[in-house]
Amino acid sequence: MKQLLLIFFFFLSLSVFAEDGSRLWLRYEPKDTADFLIYSKKETATYSIAQFEIKQYWKGKPVELKRMNAKIQGAPYQKEAFNIISNEKTIKIIASTDIGLLYGVYHLLRLQETGQVADNLNIAEIPAYNIRILNHWDNIDGTIERGYAGSSLWNWDDLPEKLSPRYTEYARANASIGINGTVLNNVNANPKFLSDEYLKKAAVLANVFRPYGIKVYLSVNFSSPVILGGLPTADPLDEDVCRWWKEKVKEIYMRIPDFGGFLVKANSEGLPGPQDFGRTHADGANMLAEALQPYGGMVMWRAFVYNPSSPDRAKQAYEEFRPLDGKFLPNVIVQVKNGPIDFQPREPFNPLFGAMQKTPLLLEFQITQEYLGADKQLAFLAPLYKECLDADTYAHGAGSTVAHCVKGIAGVANTGNNANWTGHILAQANWYAFGRLAWKPDLTSEQIADEWLKMTFSTDTAFVNPVKSILLESREAVVDYMMPLGLAHLFAWEHHYGPDPGLNIPGARPDWMPSYYHRADSIGLGFDRTTTGSNTVSQYFPPLDSIYNHIETCPEDLLLWFHHVRWDYRMKNGQTLWENLCQHYQRGVEATYRFQTVWENTQPYIDPERWEAVRQKLKIQTHDAIVWRDTCLHYFQTFSKQSVIP
Ligand code: GCW
Fold this sequence. Notes:
The protein has 646 residues and is an alpha/beta fold.
């Protein structure tokens, strides 16, 4: 392993890079006098990486890496925490583990790259969560569900024999922002991933990721005992089924001793699950948890459930999971999407946050832009993540933010085998933002944008400031030209890119049709989720239930999520709903023109390749934003019977 790492870094330091975006935010320049690392036998691979990164890229005063069982801010050192302390002569990075040291090293390099190295550093960093994990929706055939950056990074056919250098680059990029886990395969899981053939492949990836502090997890199909094991049932209370899972787990840990655990999508969108046998989600999760418990593994059980018979999809996860609170074993964590429907450009937070008080929850964000313009549109997602993390659930009175109610954060990855990793170069910022917020949710979107731009492009303020402003504006612009004022799911069938608010496929699931969500009619627009409608508002703690319930107090950016509003309803600015709707769509389109203008002016500051690549994408964005505006307004006009206001 160490030799492999050595070779990797050797090439890293020699190569002349094409400006294709492949270097991400890791653009440290080697020192002129790069001293080469000598490995001593006692060093772990992680320690060697930490040492190497400093020797190669750190340009300040001498750095000492100190492993110490000391205390940080009065508390015993948490495994991944670190201190950075400097005096006139040296800088000490102190941690109780090697991975803590490595995180400290990346932090110090970040300070260097962003021009924040002060003379007297005194930094204490403890991650807010122990679980900071990527979910890859990668399939066995190399495709990625909702992936827009090429094929899977994992070359299953070449594994376990052949290793792509990208595996190490991936691990390094994640470690540099504190991500410490990865689920390799799609939640719509092929049982074959649990076969010996594929476990060998996964084990090799785990070996590459381990020195970077990244644990491997797998998504599992609940029917695996039937499909893979040939059993007649997958009933979680059946003894043979339990035995099958226990054997399987034992086999996994023989191959991957620090395996993280399972991610499960069950009884969701047609996938099998415990309910097929009259059992509950808790029965299913606990059966797997028992098998994993002796090895320290955990089950991440998803709460993404809905079925077409329910009058309101937004209510269902809460209705199914809330009664199970307290029924899960300690090594089960319930994974909840940020909003109650499905990663829309704007949703209120999922009411399960705060409501499951005896069950640890894992917050799931989407980094890949399934509903926010795929690889074609700029949507910097830190503001979306922050909106959810900072939302007050009022579960224990004011101040019970979502960030406080969860034990970890998962993100559906936006990576693929494109040279630039994420399709749109500016979408690298979303991977970066996810990692930084999973480590430290109280960072601001602005801080994150600032860091990322300086590390990825240039520290020149003439570049950073205007581009930062368009990054920060971009998610709201997407909301404006796609689904303003709390609208949701106006997408065309299946691809979730363009608009089709009038879509109607006879016989298809009603809850997969836009009209299910927008409810436009001659009176008005929006889904009535008040106490006199579907009553979803009462899933929120007071005073939010009442704030959302009343049209006068409901925040306007969620108005049509909670209310069916008359076309002539007077909004806070004195204009009607229809007028406001037109203004939002128009405003969104105008923002995209501004993105283009700002970007045009950045040409002198960055390399022509990346400049041109982003430029092309921004042109597409304006074009497609216009399509969104025109399609939606012309469709809604057939109900409002009013003319579109330019
Ligand atoms: O958003 C929907 C997606 C599906 C996805 C599902 C889920 C992996 O359209 O592609 O399946 O959510 O989160 O399970």
